[in-house]
Amino acid sequence: MRDARNPLCFLFVAVLALTTLLTAGFSSPTFAQEAAETEIDRSATGGATTLEDIMRRQQGLQTNDNASRASNVGDPSAAAGLSEQLGTLGGASDPDLWRGMRFNAADVTTQVRGPASEVLIQDRGMWWLQFREGPLLTYGGYLLLGTLGFLLLFFLVRGRVRIDGEKTGRRIERFKNFERFGHWLLAGSFILLGITGLVSLMGRKFLIPAFGHDAFAWIAGYSKWVHNNVSWAFMIALVMIFVMWVVHNLPDKTDIKWLAKGGGLFGGGHPPAKKFNAGQKLIFWSVIVLGASISVSGLSLLFPFELPLFAKTFAVLNSTGLPEMLGFGVLPETMTPHEEMQYAQLWHAIVSFVLMAIILAHIYIGSVGMEGAYDAMGSGMVEEQWAKEHHSLWVEEVQKRERDAPGNATPAE
Amino acid sequence: MKAMILGFIAIAVIAVSGDLIMDQMGWSAEEQGSSSSNVRLD
């Protein structure tokens, strides 16, 4: 089966790309800040910050003087008496206070409501910012462009997958109106979310230079509104798709045969398939699993600080020993509210990139990549020959149902 | 084609409704983080 091999092939490329993204990103010096520390002689300052530390920080380089800075936040018990010099500062100088705020050690009280309102400076956010604007943006962009390039190359080499046999002119109903409505609800919302998500992530780098700050402010504002509110349509459609098609996407022995034949990649004709072949089932489960993950992390971002996910998830992962086994070390189990949001944003974006790559391949094979495929979601009626070639077992089921229908019963003699 | 157009219309309806419901629940994007809704006056 020539057409059906393609989703599988594309999925493999996407998974490979994800592995590359994660490996490159999480093992980068930005992520593992400790690895890039440089030894600086601080004997002259008794371990405190030196001029070299300050200069390195000004140049955007890393220093490892945080330990002394975090501990030098003033000592109220050593405060001078009220009648003495500096007495009103309570034992903490201005730099002490700022360091205290930076390392979340200051005794902050505020009238601002909200779970993260007492965190005035989020010192541990730089790795997130650098990862977001570095590997995430770069490798995410490469993944999408690489997928598009691969699809173009595939099209040029392979051409459009044609219907092999002679068309019968008869058409079979493949998807009902309600199913197609659910599909387009999911598809339309996902495309909008993908575009507006990319605007949020990459707009600063690519749109501001092209259109200027004023235009980008307008675009970004509307993108945020669309992204936040269209997300509900995506989540509703995801549930609809799951309920409608999960029965047809449960693995069975025909998938093993389909996969064993590589979906027809290496010849041998079209492997038999039911309503969905193994390649389509992989797409379905990718959409469900990755879509659900994007939805959960998206909800965490939609309701800031209300749905922290990662500290608990990391604790569970650490208990399995898997992160250490894979070389990530022990994952952080206590996080500030902002860190939770940062992890949610990264996860949301990484998983979205992977799903976008998979969906690009899905769009290709469902439109220009295969003759007759679009009809399934366009009119809902497909050419009988197309159906026999790509979903032979499903056609047999449909024809048997039609024969067994009460109106078609052969009258008894 | 009809199902596709209906799907796209539904997206717009759900988005606008979502925004209104979020506003009602106190999660307005415009008010979130603004001083008027976050400052405690006690």
UniProtKB/TrEMBL annotation, chain A:
GO biological process: anaerobic respiration; formate oxidation; respiratory electron transport chain
Gene3D superfamilies referenced in this protein's UniProt entry, alphabetically: Transmembrane di-heme cytochromes, Chain C
Organism: Marivita hallyeonensis
Family: Belongs to the formate dehydrogenase gamma subunit family.
Subcellular location: Cell membrane
Signal peptide residues on this chain, from the entry's feature table: 1-32
Record's bilayer topology term: Multi-pass membrane protein
InterPro entries membership: Cyt_b561_bac/Ni-Hgenase, Di-haem_cyt_TM, FDH_cytochrome_b556_subunit, Formate_DH_gsu
A GO molecular-function annotation: electron transfer activity
Membrane-spanning parts: 136-157, 181-202, 230-247, 282-303, 343-365
Protein name, UniProt field: Formate dehydrogenase gamma subunit
UniProt main location, coarse: membrane
Keyword terms, alphabetized: Cell membrane, Electron transport, Heme, Iron, Membrane, Metal-binding, Signal, Transmembrane, Transmembrane helix, Transport
Cofactor: heme
TrEMBL record, chain B:
Name used for this protein in its record: Uncharacterized protein
Highest rank taxon of the organism: Bacteria
